[in-house]
């Protein structure tokens, strides 16, 4: 098992659907090539962004395999396998290892909340054991799972029961906790940041890698933030991070991932609607979103040419 730490910008990829909400695998190739053009350093498949929890297990296997094939070992592919059934999650993990994924990650079950650290460790141990040859990252996203387990303690005790536990996908806003996770056990663990609009703070805290949704549409902006930080230009880094914050605020006026799919359509990558309950934006909402993004200069700094218009089809 490789234990090389993740680095750079990792796009939490979207799952392309057709107008009827079925998988549209033909768009995965163009999406992957777009991500390479904008400088992505890895992909995170079937997570919150990829609607993993809204897909059947068979669909998740299909999407995972398609991304692994299209990436073709050019950058790391991380497959999110979390499920309310830990047995099902273990099977998804085994499949990820079988198809040649580089890393697995998993949320905790959320319908029946996990309130005890030992229960979380047992659950993650079962899942991670499905792919013993792959590094395992626990996906900490308390806003969606409801889990309030201390993740620092999870790392300290979890490594005793989960041999392939190497780190976290940390999707929360507590920089102090994020820093403590990185420092745990003499910096043993790879802790990857997961809040795009706070990337600058995470970089200042020591982040070396980040996984995010908006890296699909604005990776050049985030690369400039990283470059400014590396150059010691904090004023420029703050200015650029403010662009990210403004962009996220605009998109958050709508169902976020529905809006993101609409933006991908504007950029020539029709990814279809989201699965219910997220759905799709109405045409008027798409045009309003386009106008708001134009007003803040998004199409000037996102690094991708926009289409002349958005078709009245699934790509909106």
Automatic annotation (TrEMBL):
Q: What is its main location?
A: cytoplasm
Q: Which EC numbers characterise this protein's activity in its record?
A: 4.1.3.3
Where found in the cell? Cytoplasm
Q: What SMART domains does the annotation carry?
A: DHDPS (SM01130)
Q: Which residues bind pyruvate?
A: 49, 211
Listed A to Z, the keywords are: Carbohydrate metabolism, Cytoplasm, Lyase, Schiff base
Quote the catalytic residue positions: 139, 169
InterPro entries, A to Z = Aldolase_TIM (IPR013785), DapA-like (IPR002220), Schiff_base-form_aldolases_CS (IPR020624)
Sample GO molecular function, one term: N-acetylneuraminate lyase activity
One cellular component GO annotation, for this chain's record? cytoplasm
SUPFAM superfamilies from the UniProt entry = Aldolase
**Highest taxon of the lineage:** Bacteria
Q: Pfam families, per this entry?
A: DHDPS (PF00701)
Q: What protein family is recorded?
A: Belongs to the DapA family.
Q: What is this protein called?
A: N-acetylneuraminate lyase
Organism of provenance: Neorhodopirellula pilleata
Name of the gene: nanA
């Amino acid at each position: 098992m490789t234990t090389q730490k993740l680095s750079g910008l990792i796009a939490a990829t979207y799952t392309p659907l057709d107008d009827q909400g079925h998988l549209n695998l033909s768009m995965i190739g163009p999406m992957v090539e777009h991500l390479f053009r904008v400088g992505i350093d890895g992909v995170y498949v079937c997570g919150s962004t990829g609607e993993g929890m809204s897909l059947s297990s068979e669909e998740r296997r299909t999407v995972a395999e398609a991304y692994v094939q299209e990436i073709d070992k050019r950058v790391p592919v991380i497959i999110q396998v979390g499920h309310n059934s830990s047995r099902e999650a273990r099977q998804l993990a085994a499949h990820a290892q079988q198809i040649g994924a580089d890393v697995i990650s998993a949320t905790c079950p959320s319908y029946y909340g996990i309130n005890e650290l030992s229960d979380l460790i047992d659950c993650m141990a079962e899942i991670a054991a499905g792919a013993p040859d792959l590094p395992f990252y626990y996906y900490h996203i308390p806003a969606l799972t409801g889990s309030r387990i201390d993740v620092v303690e999870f790392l300290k005790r979890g490594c005793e029961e989960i041999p392939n536990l190497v780190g976290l996908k940390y999707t929360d806003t507590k920089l102090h906790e994020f820093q403590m996770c990185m420092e745990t056990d003499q910096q043993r663990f790879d802790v990857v940041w997961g809040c795009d609009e706070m990337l600058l703070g995470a970089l200042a805290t020591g982040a070396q890698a980040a996984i995010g949704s908006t890296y699909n549409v604005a990776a050049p902006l985030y690369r400039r933030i990283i470059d400014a930080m590396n150059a010691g230009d904090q004023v420029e880094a703050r200015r650029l991070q403010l662009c990210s914050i403004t962009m996220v605020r605009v998109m958050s006026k709508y169902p976020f991932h529905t809006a993101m799919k609409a933006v991908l359509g504007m950029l020539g990558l029709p990814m279809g609607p989201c699965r219910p309950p997220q759905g799709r934006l109405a045409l008027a909402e798409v045009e309003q979103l386009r106008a708001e993004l134009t007003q803040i200069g998004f199409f000037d700094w996102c690094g991708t040419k926009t289409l002349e218009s958005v078709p009245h089809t699934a790509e909106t």
